[in-house]
Amino acid sequence: MAFKLLQHRWQKISLIVVLGLLVLTLIVALFANSYFAPKLADKIKNQVLKSSDSLYRIDIGNTELHILKGQATLYDIKLSVDTAVYNLKKKQGTAPNNLYELQVKRLVVSHMQLLTLYFKKKLNIGRITLNAPDVEVSYHPNQEPDTAKKDKRTLWQKISKSLELINVGEIYLNDVKLKYKDYTGPKVAVSELKKLNLKATGLLIDSATQKDTSRFLFCKDVTTELYNYTSKSADGLYTFKVKSVKLSTQTARLRLAGVTLTPLPHETFFRKSTDDLFALKLDTIVLNGFDYMNYQKNQDLSVSKMTASKGFFEIYSNPNGPLKTTDRLVTFPNWALRNMVKAKFNVDTLDVKKFNFTYKEVNKGPMKTGMIFFSNINARFLNLTNKKELVQKNNICTADVTSYFMGKGKFNVSFNFNLSDAAYSYSYKGHLGPMDIAEVNPALMPLSLVKGTSGRVKSLDFNVHSTKKTSTGTVSFLYNNLKVDVLRKDYTKKTIITTLANTFILKHDNPDDGSNTPRLAKVAFIRPANFPFFKTVWQTILSGIKPCAGVGKAEEEKFKKQSADEAKKDQEDLLKDAKKKKEAEDKKFKEALKKKKEGK
Predict the structure, then answer these.
(1) Quick one: which of 421, 427, 417, 414 has its CA closest to 396?
(2) Mean pLDDT, residues 569-580 taken together
(3) Phi, psi of 569, deg, nearest 5
(4) Beta strand segments in 44-150, E
(5) Does residue 7 sit within a domain?
(6) Residue 383 CA: distances (Å) to CA of 95, 257, 334, 427, 537
(7) Do 563 and 512 fall into the same domain?
(8) Are the C-beta atoms of 171 and 128 separated by less than 8 Å?
């Protein structure tokens, strides 16, 4: 049947014409591919030079162009910085803060309208895919954002003579290896990320979008995802992990999941460091209103609202910590906000939800560890910033916290931190609801060698104003049926001192039985230089609880003297017992030796 179709002359001629046209098309396509491929590579190189003002150059090893498919494949791409141009820009004050270098083995550009590009200077691309690129970003503090000399031309204005429009539907970067170098400190800080994925959609550069602030790098949205990030501190004491990170520039939302800061075991940690030990775990951290572009350009962190949910924070005071003459002011929140973080930052609102906090301290006398903890913490912090212009407008950072003290008593506290004065002043007031006094024994027994055997707190209220050196204020501690045991280092009961304390020193109720007027305490606590922030707050409140319980300075000194006398008597009794035991052993040994001689 096929041969019958070719019996007529016109059929043969038609077939020859069609085949000829097909061959001609293939020849033209092959010629165009071989002609336009190097043209495309040259155009890319020239465009990179123009758009970067000669700061960057790009090298391309080989280019494959398929005009019929609208696809281009580029191999062995390398984007690098021209150091001579960069140094010149530094002298002129126009050098950028961030430099980028890129190496890609293979880049695929799909659905590209080559004829439109060639004849109309409009670059339309469906998709760009880069697999496993190596990216290096370095940050150099060359210029302040407000004082820098800038080329005020937009990117479109820079490229408009060569291209009227650039439109890319999707850009994919898969399995990116990113190295970040920060040159702000005395040593270069290097961070490396692996398994980073990036997707950008709706890239459009033209006269209409050249000043469109709703776009990020001219894209409608850029989404990045990072999985299983791990790093260690320079001293090897901590390991930092993040299970996943996701950023969307369209929603200005950054989400971190599975955040942990894990120290070495505390015995090992305290052998290697005199600093306090910190541990942190958070299920999620969400940053809304995150200005990523400003952060990337100037290391300036601006967040409208930050939420941290479900986790814990633990501080373990180092028993081998700084000497008594070493000032622990560095542990104060307002000091940390002003001095610890070098980069500029501002968080309008920080919400903490379903959080636990633990403070541990070792009493070197009995070598026991005391613990204070707060469970189910919900808190809101406002005006967390170190930006001078914002501090001038509002220099107070506030924190409102609700929690359960020792997991039992409802506890509310509010803090105000001054972010500008030299005294690092702050104030706090709070209220503790009803709870059994015995619930505080995990702190009282190790740190004070006192055990609460009965009693119930009705309320604890305090209002304190502090500087880095002093704390003054009022404390009200209402309770019923308070009784305690005074303990030795091994937690055995000191009978005489316990009787003395419960009979002559402690007031068992506040207000006293038959009285309507409770005892209130005015506190004036002078902070020892080596006291960190949380210990200072605790000791200040404790200095007000004692007089409310009837333990004034005179009673406390008398109590200490009686304790010292009993401890001395206990020591003398131990020495007597040891002497009698040794004499008995010597006597027994002599008798055994005598019998042995008589037996011989």
Answers:
(1) 417
(2) 63
(3) -65, -40
(4) 56-66, 71-81, 98-110, 122-131, 134-139
(5) no
(6) 33, 24, 11, 16, 22
(7) yes
(8) yes
Q: Are residues 118 and 199 in the same domain?
A: yes
Query: How many distinct structural domains can be found in the chain?
Result: 2
329-335: long-range contacts (C-beta < 8 A, 24 or more apart)? 329/424, 329/468, 331/276, 331/532, 331/533, 331/534, 332/424, 332/426, 332/468, 332/533, 333/397, 333/415, 333/417, 333/426, 333/533, 334/397, 334/417, 334/418, 334/419, 334/424, 334/426, 335/424, 335/468
Q: Are 237 and 246 in contact (CB under 8 A)?
A: no
More confident position, 427 or 148 = 427
Alpha helices in 52-140 (DSSP H): 83-92, 114-120
pLDDT in tens, 92-103: 888 888 888 888
Helix (H) or strand (E) holding 538: helix 533-548
> What pLDDT shows up at residue 219?
82
In a domain, 22, yes or no: no
As given in the structure block, the two tokens for residue 88 are 């010149």
pLDDT for the residue numbered 426: 96
Instruction: Say whether both 76 and 174 belong to one domain.
Output: yes
Shared domain for 194 and 298, answered yes or no, is: no
Where residue 480 falls (left for φ over 0; alpha for ψ -120 to 50; beta otherwise) is: beta
What CA–CA distance (Å, rounded) separates 91 from 395? 37
Closest CA relative to residue 519, chosen from 461, 463, 448: 461
Q: Is residue 90 part of a domain?
A: yes
Same structural domain for residues 83 and 123? Answer: yes
Query: How many Å apart are CA 34 and CA 24, to the nearest integer?
Result: 15
Residues 227 and 193 in one domain: no
**Cα angle value 518/524/529 (rounded, 5°):** 140
Question: Residue 130 contacts by C-beta under 8 Å, 6 or more apart in sequence?
Answer: 104, 106, 107, 172, 173, 174
> What tokens appear for 158 in the block?
């820079």
Question: pLDDT of 507-552, one tens digit each?
Answer: 888 888 767 788 899 999 999 988 889 889 989 998 999 888 887 6
233 and 187 in a common domain = no
Question: How far is the C-alpha of 70 from the C-alpha of 522, rounded, in Å?
Answer: 82
Residue of 418, 419, 423 lying closest to 387 (CA atoms): 419
Q: Which amino acid makes up residue 305?
A: K
Structural domain harbouring 99? 39-145+152-215
